[in-house]
Amino acid sequence: MREGIKMGQRNYGAEELAEVYRLMGDKTRLKMAEKLSKDYYTISDFVKLFGISQPLASQHLKKLKKAFLLKEKRVGKLIYYKLNPNAKDFPLISLLLNPLKKSLSEPSVCDYPPADRIRKIAQ
Fold first, then answer.
1. CATH code for the domain of 52
2. What range(s) does the HTH arsR-type domain occupy (predicted)?
């Protein structure tokens, strides 16, 4: 029997886990995946949200698409992307995104004015 980590119906070996971690190891791609887990976004949306170039946003989405993690919806000339909850790696990706979702929903220390930051850090 193969050793690994069981997620849903899937058993992940070390090589498969490493591949998913490599894919999600980029902070921009991780933030994109977090957004895509909630709603549909276009490449232009990510350019505006993250202040990255259109080719870079396309490249990140291409990697997620190549891993079969995205579903897409065409509306006119635009393509909207969203994480595919039926993707084979979705349970593991969701597990990786949970801490990020929590941290993004809480205000960051940087969101406070300078004087309040010191008090917040001291707590």
1. 1.10.10.10
2. 9-108
Q: Is residue 115 part of a domain?
A: no
Query: H-type helices in 1-123, by residue range?
Result: 14-23, 27-36, 43-50, 54-66, 90-105, 114-122
Residue 42 structural domain: 16-97
> Would you say residue 51 lies in a domain?
yes
Query: How many independent structural domains does the chain possess?
Result: 1
Residue 108 has pLDDT above 60, yes or no: no
Residue 93 in domain: yes
pLDDT surpasses 60 at 26:
yes
Among 41, 20, 9, 1, which Cα is nearest to 94's? 20
State the Cα–Cα distance between residues 97 and 34, nearest whole angstrom: 6
How many other CB atoms are there within 10 angstroms of residue 60's CB atom? 21
Integer Rg of the chain from CA: 17
Do the beta carbons of residue 2 and residue 11 sit within 8 Å? yes
Whether 58 maps to a domain, the answer reads: yes
The answer to whether residues 71 and 84 touch, using CB atoms and an 8 Å cutoff, is yes
